[in-house]
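Archive record:
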Amino acid sequence: MQRHGSGGSAAIRLRAAGLILLIAHLLLVGWLTLRPLDVMWVTAANLEPFAGIRADLALGPVEAAVRIGEGLLLLAPLGVLLPMAGGRLDVSPWVSLARTVLAAALLSLGIELLQTAVPGRVVDVDALLLNTTGVALAHLAVVPAWRGRLRRRRRPSAGGGSRGRGAGVLRDDAPQGATPRIPRVGIAP
């Protein structure tokens, strides 16, 4: 049986906060990307990778920075909120990055596909690329350091006291002494 001290309740609160923030962010993204636009004409769908980014760069450095920045920042909080809502501390950084980026790419793809049914919106493959890149950058910038800090806080202190989750719990990697030996007993005839 696993005992949770103050570290366990803090982890639960952190995970709950992550879920609430994730839902709030997804609602905001849905409102920003799936509401109809009142426009006179609509551009054609962009299915050629980097064509929209090249067009943005042709508009000048300031306009390109704004448009590319918007694409990078739209889903970037998911790079932190998805692992936070997951609540796992002991996971490989590469697995966490791959899982988060894949989830964000699928979400971005879903948004792009839903936009085909919204007046004034079109599919843009560059939006998918920028959204996914933004999530990966946010994840790499925040999550490894954040998890490391939480893991250090969770470990028992060197002075023998206990802090955080896992204190007083028998761990699989802790030494547990020698293997017991049973003396051989002969079998009766």
Summary: The first helix runs from residue 6 to 34. Residues 6-36+45-154 form one domain.
